Amino acid sequence: MAKAFDLAEKGLGYTSPNPAVGAILLKNGRIVASGYHRRAGLPHAEIEVIKKAAKNARGAILITTLEPCSHHGKTPPCVDAIIAAGIKKVVGAITDRNPEVSGRGYRKLRRAGIEVVNGVLRKRAQRFYEPYFKFITTGIPFVTLKFAQSINGRIATRSGNSHWISSPESLKLSHKVRAVTDAVLIGNQTLKADNPELTTRLARGPNPIRILLSASGKVTRRRMIFTDRAAPTYIATATKSNVKQDRDFKIIRVKKLKSGLDLEDLLSKLGKMGVVTLLVEGGSQVLTSFIKQKIGDRMIVFIAPIIIGDGISAIGDLGVATVENSIALSEMEWFKSGPDLFISGRPIWR
Fold first, then answer.
1. Which of these, 118, 153, 188, 241, is most buried using a 10 Å CB contact count?
2. Contacts for 295 with CB less than 8 Å, ≥ 6 apart
3. At what angle do helices 78-85 and 104-111 cross, to 10 degrees?
4. Residues 135, 148, 221, CA angle at the centre, nearest 5°?
5. What pTM was computed for the model?
6. In the predicted model, what is the mean pLDDT of the chain?
7. Strand partners, 252
8. pLDDT tens-digit readout, 84-105
9. pLDDT per residue over 198-235, tens digit each?
10. Is pLDDT above 70 for 72?
């Protein structure tokens, strides 16, 4: 199963809105075929290994990271192919929470006389499929808030300079995170100050969709995300933009609140576009807006071993009066990234 998850990881960034799945066929104690879901619209992992194994699939054991699908989508149901191939046993990691599957795949296999074992490496499966499960049950993307800061909590100097707070190792790791994310979001200030490309040029994987959050709709047109055509680019705004949408970018109309753009409305629209995962790389204003609206499933922070002194804070005022009312992180993970400290956790919204 661990090898199957290693295979599934190869599909991250390519399969949305479908989940990334890895599969292995075992027969007489040896692997006869292995594969993964390579891209949305292509054969699922189970179909790929069945085709690879051909006649050797009969009487084999199928190891799969997710319950096989039982419904017609862009491809036929995997359970039908499993039954037709004569596979004798299916070992899965977790039940698919897609309402169109949700145990139906396993039940159909059992009715066909195929032995089913579920829950192998369940904890790894829960973590791996958490973004997909959120999306498939709510229609809302899984949101990760990411930023790099100095030891004293600054993301830029007082003049706005931030190149580069984090190390080359952390920058490469950030690109790896982008490579397995459907969309990346920044705000107008980051666009003006950094002119970012928001690509995966330092990592292997597809470039994410790029989203610019602009309450005013006024943008600096001569920026890389509007001219390089490296990935689809969108402006999310509640008003008319000062530039017309063309082949380089499109507009997403977002509702407006008294405090700013309605980020829940934006997420709903992104979900309808098939965006399963969203990476927020915005500056202080954007990050603070997401936190004030209690939006964020995961937070990633790179802490560089430098002291800037006065400068731009990573997070603005949240109205926290006492320490006990602060936002804590759970499920913590941390390690060294070059000279930096990588910290990841789940915000606990009160």
1. 188
2. 143, 263, 264, 267
3. 20
4. 75
5. 0.93
6. 92
7. 236
8. 999 999 999 999 999 988 899 9
9. 999 999 999 999 999 988 888 877 889 988 889 999 99
10. no
- Full DSSP string of 40-101: TTSPPHHHHHHHHHGGGGTT-EEEESSPPP-S-SSS--HHHHHHHHT--EEEESS----TTT
Residue 276 and residue 267: Cα distance in Å, rounded?
A: 10
- Cα dist. 132→47, 140, 220 in Å? 20, 10, 34
Is residue 165 within 8 A of residue 149, CB to CB? The reply is yes
List CB contacts of 174: < 8 A, sequence separation 6 or more. Answer: 146, 148, 166, 302
Amino acid (1-letter code) at residue 312? I
Structure tokens at 288: 């603070």
The pLDDT-based confidence of 186 (bands split at 50, 70, 90) is very high
The predicted pLDDT at position 220 comes to 78
* pLDDT for position 244: 66
Cis peptide leading into residue 232 (ω within 30°): no
Residue 274 CA to residue 264 CA, distance in Å, equals: 15
pLDDT at position 241 over 80: no
Rg of the chain on CA atoms, in Å: 22
Q: How far apart are the C-alpha atoms of 181 and 316, rounded to whole Å?
A: 26
User: What are the catalytic residues?
Assistant: 46
Bridge partners for 149 per DSSP? 303
Q: Where are the alpha helices (DSSP H) in the chain?
A: 2-9, 45-53, 78-85, 104-111, 122-128, 130-138, 168-179, 188-194, 224-227, 263-272, 284-292
The secondary structure of 143-164, three-state, reads EEEEEEECCCCEEEECCCCCCC
Q: What is the C-alpha to C-alpha distance for residues 210 and 286, in angstroms, rounded to an integer? A: 15
Mean pLDDT of 151-175: 89
What is the separation of C-alpha 120 from the centre of its chain, rounded to a whole number of angstroms? 23
CA separation for the pair 308, 314 (Å, rounded): 12
Burial of 163 (0-12, 13-18, 19+ CB in 10 A): exposed
Q: Which DSSP helix (H) or strand (E) runs through 300?
A: strand 298-303
